[in-house]
Amino acid sequence: MQEQVLYYSGALDQKTSEAILAALEACQIAYTVLEDSDLDQSIQSLLNTKKQAVIVNRRHQEACMLFREGKEQTFVKLRRAFAQRQIIYSGSKAVVTKHNRTWPFIKLLEEVEEEHRYFQLYEAILKQLKESEALREEAYEPHTYHKLQLARLHVFQTLQKQSDYSALLSVQAELQQALAQLCKK
Length: 185
What we know:
It is built from six helices and four strands. It has helices spanning 14-26, 43-47, 72-84, 105-133, 142-160, 165-180, and strands spanning 4-8, 30-33, 64-67, 92-95. The protein has a four-stranded mixed beta sheet, sandwiched between helices. The N and C termini lie far apart (67 Å). This is DUF3783 domain-containing protein.
C-alpha cells in the first residue's frame, strides 16, 4: 500500500504549509489536507477521504502529519525534500496504529501534545537531577544536603516507574525545593 499522510497545518503560515504540501508531492506521498471540521472524525474514515482544502482559522495550534504506514524510507525522503525547500517543520509526526485508528483526529492531536509536554518535563527533570549531582556534599550543611539526597532518590524512583505527568510535576517541585533550601557551610 502506498504511504498516505493526513496533514493538519495548525497555526503554520500558508507559505510554509504550501511548501510542505509541495514536498509531499515531490516525494510522491499521497496526502489529505484536514480542515477543522475533520478533527472529530475517526482516523480510519479520514484515511479513506480524498479532499484537499486549506482553511486559516484553526481549533488546534499544533501542525501534524499522520502517516498511514510510517516507513523509514518515507521519512528520509521527506526530510531531504524539506531540507531542499528550507522547511523547518516543528509540528508533530505520528503513525496510524491499530490502537489509534478509530480515534477522532483531535484526540490524536491531544495525545501527541500531551506526550510532548511529558517528555519535555522528563528531560527538564533529568537536567536538574544531573546539575544537582555536581553539588559537593562537603560544601553544604548536612541536614539540607540530606534533604537534597532524599529528593534525588525520590526523583530517580519516580522516573524509573515511568510515572504520569502529575507525579513528574510533583518530584520536580520537590527537587527544586530541596535545591532552594540548601545552605552553604
